Amino acid sequence: MKKVMLVLSLVVFTGCATITSSTKQEVSINVKPDHAKVYVNGNKVGEGSCSVEVPVKKRNTIIVKAEGYENAQIKTQRQIRAGYLIGNIGMCFVPYVNFFGLPSLIVDACTGAWYKLEEDEYYFDLDKK
User: Fold this and answer.
1) Is the dihedral of CA 105, 19, 44, 35 positive or negative?
2) Which long-range contacts (CB under 8 A, 24 or more apart) does 101-105 make?
3) Cα-flanking dihedrals φ and ψ of residue 126, to 5°?
4) What does the pLDDT read at residue 114?
5) What is the SS3 assignment for 104?
6) Does the reported pTM lie above 0.70?
């Protein structure tokens, strides 16, 4: 009975990043001047300070433009959430439930759900031309 409860608890409490987190993250983009246009990955997402969801799987390019000002650009940096990676790898070695580890590892790697952006706020103070 103890083995059954152990296996059942491991199965129930085992999740992968794709299930428990998101493949996108909301970031705040604060700009000066207030009328500056904000682009993420080439798409206009707002004018002035705004919040936007960006994918965490790749490095995103944020560009801020305003007439009479120099453009500013930044590439987001990402990092792996160590807990998800360790959990996925660890599940590969747990007896009776090791078949959950490898699929979770593969899915999280493919979807990028185990990543998070290093910053969730970006500040741009454009210089006049």
Assistant:
1) negative
2) 103/16, 104/14, 104/16, 104/17, 104/18, 105/16
3) -70, 145
4) 81
5) helix
6) yes
